Amino acid sequence: MYAIVADEPFKLSEGNKFYKKDFEKPELNDKDVFVKVKSIGMNPVDTKTRQTEIKHPPRILGYDAVGVVEDVGSEVTSYKKGDVVFYSGRADVDGSNATHQVMHEAYIAHAPKNVSLNEAAGFPLTSLTASETLFEVFNISKNKEDNKGKSILIINGAGGVGSMATQIAKHYGLTVITTASKDETKEWSKSLGADIVLNHKNDLRDEFKSHNIENVDYVFCTFDTDLYYEVMIDLVKPRGHIATIVAFTEKQDLNLLKAKSITFTHEFMFTRALQDLDDQYQYHRYLSEISHLINEGVYKPTVTEVMKGLSVDNIFKAHEKLENHEVHGKLVIEVEE
Amino acid sequence: MYAIVADEPFKLSEGNKFYKKDFEKPELNDKDVFVKVKSIGMNPVDTKTRQTEIKHPPRILGYDAVGVVEDVGSEVTSYKKGDVVFYSGRADVDGSNATHQVMHEAYIAHAPKNVSLNEAAGFPLTSLTASETLFEVFNISKNKEDNKGKSILIINGAGGVGSMATQIAKHYGLTVITTASKDETKEWSKSLGADIVLNHKNDLRDEFKSHNIENVDYVFCTFDTDLYYEVMIDLVKPRGHIATIVAFTEKQDLNLLKAKSITFTHEFMFTRALQDLDDQYQYHRYLSEISHLINEGVYKPTVTEVMKGLSVDNIFKAHEKLENHEVHGKLVIEVEE
Question: Membrane spanning segments where (chains A, B) (predicted)?
């Protein structure tokens, strides 16, 4: 068993500092599940984390996996050897860029059965992020009737998180407005359920006008929050709610929120790991629901590209593609070990 | 009938630019109520608005009143001549620094009967602001059982809004932590229901430690948001919610919200006037509930000082007291006309 690791943070322009490292099967704690990883999803958070300080090198990145259970801790009752599971994991433990991974059962659910392993690997992080934002941040009802007439603007609707947020928001009855610019990504976003796809090459205020949209209840930003900060404030309703998953590069004027009593949330999916353990089983609950709705045919896979083989080269190439914004939907790597 | 008005924005250091102006009874629209004002409440928003541009001079400030109905528009059925009503009003119409005022019925409720008129005048703006923040921003349940174990930190608990927020949060079952510094204001805050009063002369992080408080679910800032921005972020729980009613003087780093997925709202009570008319009756509903709970003896008056007579001098003096932070609870002016 091996992982792709790095000993220090680096920029891609410095060359490929990832390397392959063998490891032994670790001891399992009572609630741990030991997984033979079959496919991993790649996310922008990989590229951001790669450039942050490493406290205990080497570091294994990777926040999406599907795999087969090989062993379980003494208190695990929900999973047994041979089960296929999927998970995102947490930011502060060894990641999924590996042939095998240990994960606490709170973070895991049974993978959907009617999609391929590669397709399943594309779901966890984006689904968890979108679910938290919609149901906990925006407090959207799970009763579709309650959401009738409510609308959400998803900035960068064709991205990984945007693709899942679109599907979930649509399923729960919201009017979904997304942004994209290329024909390919516009079509993609529509195919996932977007009612209206705006062109984010134009000022979104003008796009709203030309589509006769006055304002929206919710804005979910998955791309360049600084660029969209004032636009989002202009487009959300009085007492509306804006959330972002993209860190700012500059300070902002919070007084702009005042006239309309706007609420702003900086959503971060790994926050829950700071909370008590009971609460961390919420990851399991979300993933179980997602898995169920994939099996029901409600949510479609968002994977658009599969790389074959967990290698130093492929991990580096995947980071390049993400940093160059070459990916819509999700890029996954099939482990092939 | 007369009002205290000004023709231009001014600072107190420029001298008293308020003057008395007589006016005639205006035409009433269908849903308007014409009120003989008996007592007015003074608020920090008066001092802030005094310094803003006047589009159509002269301007009548004043955002709290209790008075007796003298006449009603043709479609008003809930109020009749002789009814005692109270209201805050809205920011964009003539205010309550006057012997008579026209107000749309959506903004009005019957005043409580078991407190004096001066005491009743202290409630509307602070109650509405506190109610919106607790029930709409923080989404606090009206079922006390749901709030068991939940906690709120109210910064400047002895201020006007802080005094009402304390009473309402306590009534609905939250653990209420406030801040104050003088013995008098500490006692005041305790008398309104604060479970713990911290000394805001000290770093609130240290105050939390010395009272064995780990963190709180909600933080409501009613004083100097810039000063408390980072402290509030440190003291709120992961996925917690911070609200302020005090504008910032500087830009802030919104990335500080990320690690704990914190939600931030800039609450502004007059925002609702931007929304559709149906929604504006929410002011009426809040005030009716407040009036009911005052009559039930649940909420105590927060008035600590009464000035006698609606005069140019008294309005100016009241602005001075507010700007010098000499008031805890509420200052009201009895109209005496």
Answer: none
Q: Among A138, A252, A254, pick the best mutation site for testing chain B contact (most B Cβ within 10 A).
A: A254
Token pair 């801790």 is found at A73
Q: Does A277 touch chain B (CB under 8 A)?
A: no
Q: How many CB pairs under 8 A join A and B?
A: 99
Pairwise CA distance, residues A257 & A255, whole Å: 5
CA distances from B165 to B125, B184, B231 (A): 12, 18, 20
Q: Is the pLDDT of residue B276 over 80?
A: no
Other C-beta atoms closer than 10 Å to the C-beta of B142 total: 12
pLDDT, average across residues B79-92: 96
Q: Which CATH number fits domain B2-123+272-334: 3.90.1150.10, 3.30.1200.10, 3.90.180.10, 3.40.1640.10?
A: 3.90.180.10
Of A139, A225, A267, which is closest to B261 when you measure between CB atoms?
Answer: A267
**Alpha carbon separation from A193 to A122, A213, B233, B252 (Å, rounded):** 18, 18, 36, 36
Which part of chain A has CATH 3.90.180.10? 2-123+272-334
The ipTM is 0.91
Residues 126-155 of B with CB under 8 A from A: 132, 136-137, 139
Q: Tell me if B215 sits within 8 A of B142, measured CB to CB.
A: no
At A276 the pLDDT is 77
Domain A130-267 bears CATH identifier 1.10.340.30: no
pLDDT of residue B274: 78
